[in-house]
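Dear U.,

For the methods section draft, I wanted the exact inputs and outputs in one place so we can describe them consistently. I've listed the two proteins in the order they'll appear in the manuscript figures. Please don't edit the token lines directly; just add comments below if something needs changing.

First protein:
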Amino acid sequence: MGTRMSGRTVLITGGASGIGLGIAHGLAAEGANLVIADLNADAAQTAADAINKSGGSAISAHVDVTSRASVTAGIELAAKTFGQLDCYFNNAGFNKPMKFLDVTEDNFNTIMSVNALAVFVGTQEAAKQFIRQGTGGKVVNTASIAGRTGFSSFAPYSASKAAVISITQAAARALAEHNITVNAFSPGVVQTPLWTKLDKDLEEIGEGDSGFDSMAAGILVGRAAQPEDIVPTALFLASSDSDYVTGQTMAIDGGMILV
């Protein structure tokens, strides 16, 4: 066990699977108190149990990121259980690919609601908690390579992740006076349940050739990422190592998108 996050409390939305779960395990191994916030309460509890079993410290919280009241309840639970909140990961997100000309208002709005508006609300509520505590704090958002370049079969997702980058910058400016840093990381192709489902969805709309394997083929380091590849950057952004970094979106994509 490391100590870089010793005594720090971290809440991760979408923390029960994929990138969120990888980050949770990585931060727990460095001594953080984890709040695994997820829409899937059972999976969140399973994740928390696994961390506790391996000598870490974690609780689960049933959180729907599209509900401000639910987000606030998760933050309150974190503060009540561990004394205060130090870092908030806006990580929950989803995608439902559709061909550009087939995208509906419902598809667009649902993706924007979870991936963009929820990041905005999560940042607001985490910041209010940090200000109440008088401690400062850190917000870390999950962006994507799709926020840097638009993909034809998931235009709303690309738009939502571009919004995450903009929200990160705006929040960093707005919250600096409160000693709150706001950063994001931008993964590329990561081997997670989200991608497995994405591949299936792309097949269904006849876009199978633009899926995981074809995208992974363009990665300079020669392989797709595992959630563990995200952990060192997440740890940097959650720890005091990044106190002089704010408003940034750090690419962790093996060199897919060079800007």
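Second protein (the one for the lower panel):
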Amino acid sequence: MEKESLGRLLLSTAYLEGDFVLRSGRRSKYYLDKYLFETDPGVLRGIVHHMAMLVRNQLASGTEYARLAAPELGGVVLGAGLSLELGLPLLLVRKLTKKYGTGKRVEGRYEPGERVAVVEDIVTSGGAALQAVDALRELGLVVEDLYCVVDREEGGAEAVVAAGLTLHPLFTSSELGIGPKP
């Protein structure tokens, strides 16, 4: 599936209009429901395919990743799909350290010093992804790249750059023809 066709499919599957409160606390007249596009196998397959191409392009430029990491909950499905597609192990990053079992915030095997790429669904302010990056860096992992399905172009890219990361969006809201109108 061509990227443009995937963008149209993503919108027809997950684009909603109304009055929404985003995770950042901001209000929005539109919402991309990640659970609608992540639970639809046709859309998810296309997203994973095209995001894998983004990662492969970065790998071809000389970047090496030991593994991928995905923040709960939205990034997990994407991370699992990309892990299977790319053959890279996956780390799962909880919002909070669990209070039972092994008591971990980051699940999966890793060694300090390994380079990890973070996979996220939607970037608005970048808050959830940056919290995951902080948790990974606290464990001694090297995180310099963040891949997302959509950058809403509402300050998240700037926050990501300020945190020393490169943002690799599959789509921007402008590319999809949505978002705040000037």
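Candidate sentences for the figure legend, describing the second protein: The longest strand covers residues 142-151. The chain is about 40% helix and 25% strand.

Thanks,
Y.
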